Amino acid sequence: ALRYSRKAPSKPLLLLKALIAAGGRQVAGGSLAAILWPDTDGDRAQQTFETTLHRLRKYLGDDRYLIMDDGRVTLNSDLVWVDVWSFERSVSALRSQLQHAAAPQAMERVAEHAENLLRSYQGHFLSRDETTCWSVSLQERLRSKYIHCIIDLGRYWEQHGLWDKAIFCYRKGIEVDDLIETFYQRLMVCFRETGRRAEAIAAYHQCRRILSVVLSLEPVSETRAIYQSILERQHHKAG
Hints:
This protein is mostly helical. Helices cover 68% and strands 4% of the residues. Strands 1-3-2 form a 3-stranded antiparallel β-sheet. Helix 2 (29-36) crosses helix 3 (42-60) and helix 6 runs antiparallel to helix 7. The longest helix has 27 residues, at 133-159.
């Protein structure tokens, strides 16, 4: 982690973010210069890039963190841990394990990879920064991977009757992205199947409120059908 005696060095950190957004490995310096200073002529943009790279290395405190080779920049993976890389490794490992769910000790490995995935993905990529053309592509790609992994993982726990694990999974999904209706649908089903009707109803109303306020939308028919099934079970039990 970086420590600053005063304010954070905005330009060097912006370069670091752009480098990670571009893959972090063998990224042409000219490409980074064009991304960050598109309105500056080529030679001046390249000079600004080199100055900013020098400042970034100074703030990092060790030239070995950033490797320059033939005009290309690479984050040294032997010395630097990047949450994006960790997350993508966890996605690949989890998907592979879910495809071989019948293998011995598969459930333990799924749980291990799931923990790594949830730990490394604490929010959408650079979500607190101003949206830029160079960050939004990676942000959406990682977001899509996260959503699909959460759904696949939750369904895996459901299929094995591990309802609490599934509930935890969908809740983590909602914490990060509360506009994904599927998370609420599956959470409601888990609560319904475990007899937690009040929580299922609360999940529906949370979904409805969020969609209404943020997107001016109502829940889709599938969500409403799950909600109706919960009410019908409640009325049947009362009867």
